[in-house]
Design goal:
The protein is of the alpha+beta class and 231 residues long. It is 16% helix and 27% strand. The chain has 3 helices and 10 strands; from the N terminus they run H-E-H-E-E-E-E-E-E-E-E-E-H. It has helices at 2-23, 50-53, 213-224, and strands spanning 45-48, 75-77, 81-84, 90-103, 116-119, 121-122, 129-138, 144-153, 175-178, 195-202. Strands 4, 5, 7, 8 and 10 form a 5-stranded antiparallel β-sheet that branches. Strands 2-9-6 form a 3-stranded antiparallel β-sheet, with no helix packed on it. The longest helix has 22 residues, at 2-23. The protein starts with a helix and ends in a 7-residue tail after the last helix.
Length: 231
């Protein structure tokens, strides 16, 4: 009788011990997470004219002395270039608006040319820039007052050249020459401006990854709602 009782107690004791161990056990768990950080780049450019800008006139104006009271066939330094001051690669363009006037010009031997609307300044562009087209500029009466030329920083095949951050393009041109105009046509004491604009755009994810200068200019033109149609 005593032996049976002892066996029962032993059984209860053993079961109780198992239950106690189970109640203090813990589960192994873990957790991990990842945050993906993105930054947005920036395309910014500066239009520079180093030689022009360092020659203000005696009054501190931004017109060099030699640009005042110019004479026929006179040449002066003017050297537009574009610097990429942003954080992303860029494709770069420039427009140059040259004033026009209906005048008689003279050849180097003194012979006259017929009266015609002519650009008042000429220049020689660097081969690193490609002319994409030109368009006439007219006033409210429809009279032609200027011609605007569009240039892309691109190779001979019309493929845009990448300008990396802090890089600067080659000069579009280095000097301009005043037309060889015959005197007495009302040009004297006039003020004529060559207006230059620069444009920059990102180099990636452009219409399927194109680097064609004409296609990219169309993207810029559409986005900025530019009215000119160069041809």
């Amino acid at each position: 009788m005593k032996n049976n009782t002892w066996k029962k107690y032993m059984g209860i004791t053993a079961i109780t011990a198992v239950l106690l161990v189970g109640s203090v056990s813990a589960y192994f768990t873990d957790q991990d997470e990842k945050t993906n950080t993105f930054t947005v780049g920036k395309v910014t450019i500066d239009l520079e004219e180093p030689e022009w800008d360092k020659k203000p006139d005696e009054n501190g104006n931004d017109i060099p002395d030699e640009a005042e009271n110019m004479t026929p066939n006179q040449t002066i330094e003017k050297d537009p270039q574009v610097k990429n001051t942003g954080t992303n690669d860029a494709f770069v363009y420039m427009t140059v608006e040259v004033p026009c006037k209906k005048i008689v010009t003279v050849n180097n031997d003194g012979t006259r040319n017929p009266e015609a609307v002519r650009e008042l300044y000429t220049y020689q562009t660097d081969s690193s820039w490609k002319l994409l087209g030109s368009v006439d500029v007219t006033d409210e009466t429809g009279e032609k007052t200027a011609v605007k030329h569009l240039y892309a920083y691109a190779g001979a095949q019309g493929t845009c050249t990448v300008v990396k951050p802090q890089e600067t393009t080659k000069n579009l041109f280095r000097e301009v020459t005043f037309v060889n105009a015959m005197e007495g046509q009302g040009l004297e004491n006039g003020m004529y401006k060559i207006e230059i604009e620069a444009f920059g755009i990102q180099t990636t994810d452009l219409n399927g990854g194109t680097n064609n200068a004409a296609e990219i200019w169309k993207i810029i033109s559409n986005q900025r709602e530019l009215a000119e149609s160069f041809s």
